[in-house]
């Protein structure tokens, strides 16, 4: 019995030595690698200041009908986030409401963007006022991106001067003509 235990122990010892020798015979390494990626997904957002989502041109006296309504300046009206260069387009629906036989051309209203975050803006294309149109039109471009870029927007109604709206646009009561303006940001 002692011989059997001795042989069994010896066999186990030999198997263990071969196993350890097999592990030690492999090319041991004390280093290994991990790949770390930083991935950037492009983002572009545009937001109209929620407290400024209505622009009113009010014709309520003879001076307004003669000279047109005052420009509506909306400070920090647009907020943009973009991971790279971009274009801001503007498009508008036609004016609805009012009287059936009187229409107001979209081109009677113009928009102009003014940069208010100069230190973070590397753009171009902010120029003269742009008449509204039912066709998507570039309003301005940027050669770089940025976070929380804020822009003032001036809305003007030059088409309402010289008494153009005085006759026939109302019938004894206040009448409102409404158009929707949509801003879009796309990669440039």
Task: Kindly describe this structure.
It contains two helices and eleven strands, in the order αβαββββββββββ. The mean pLDDT is 84. With 188 residues, the protein is an alpha+beta fold. The strands form three sheets. Strands 1-2-9-5-7 form a five-stranded antiparallel sheet, with no helix packed on it. The protein has a four-stranded antiparallel sheet with strand order 6-8-3-11, with no helix packed on it. It starts with a helix and ends with a strand.
Primary descriptors:
single chain, 188 residues, alpha+beta, five-stranded antiparallel sheet, four-stranded antiparallel sheet, 2 helices, 11 strands, elongated
Brief sketch in words of this structure:
The chain is built from 2 helices and 11 strands; from the N terminus they run αβαββββββββββ.
Main β-sheet description: 5 strands, antiparallel
Question: Proportion of β residues?
Answer: 25-35%
Mean pLDDT: 84
Q: How would you write the strand order of the largest sheet?
A: 1-2-9-5-7
Protein topology:
Blueprint: H1 2-25, E1 44-48, H2 62-67, E2 72-82, E3 86-92, E4 96-97, E5 110-115, E6 123-124, E7 130-131, E8 137-142, E9 146-156, E10 177-178, E11 181-187
Antiparallel strand pairs: 1-2, 2-9, 3-8, 3-11, 4-10, 5-7, 5-9, 6-8
């Amino acid at each position: 019995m002692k011989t059997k235990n001795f042989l069994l122990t010896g066999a186990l010892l030999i198997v263990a030595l071969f196993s350890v020798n097999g592990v030690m015979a492999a090319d041991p390494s004390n280093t290994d690698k991990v790949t770390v990626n930083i991935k950037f997904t492009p983002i572009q957002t545009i937001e109209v200041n929620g407290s400024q989502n209505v622009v009113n041109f009010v014709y309520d006296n003879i001076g307004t009908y003669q000279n047109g309504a005052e420009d509506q300046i909306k400070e920090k009206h647009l907020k943009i986030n973009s991971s790279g260069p971009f274009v801001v387009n503007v498009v508008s629906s036609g004016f609805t409401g009012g009287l059936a036989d009187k229409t107001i051309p979209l081109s009677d209203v113009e928009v102009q963007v003014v940069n208010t975050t100069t230190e973070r803006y590397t753009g171009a294309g902010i120029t003269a006022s742009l008449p509204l149109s039912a066709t998507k039109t570039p309003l301005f471009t940027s050669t770089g991106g940025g976070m929380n870029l804020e822009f003032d927007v001036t809305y003007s109604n030059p088409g309402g001067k010289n008494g153009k709206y005085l006759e026939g646009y109302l019938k004894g009561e206040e009448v409102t003509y409404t158009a929707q303006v949509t801003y879009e940001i796309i990669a440039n």
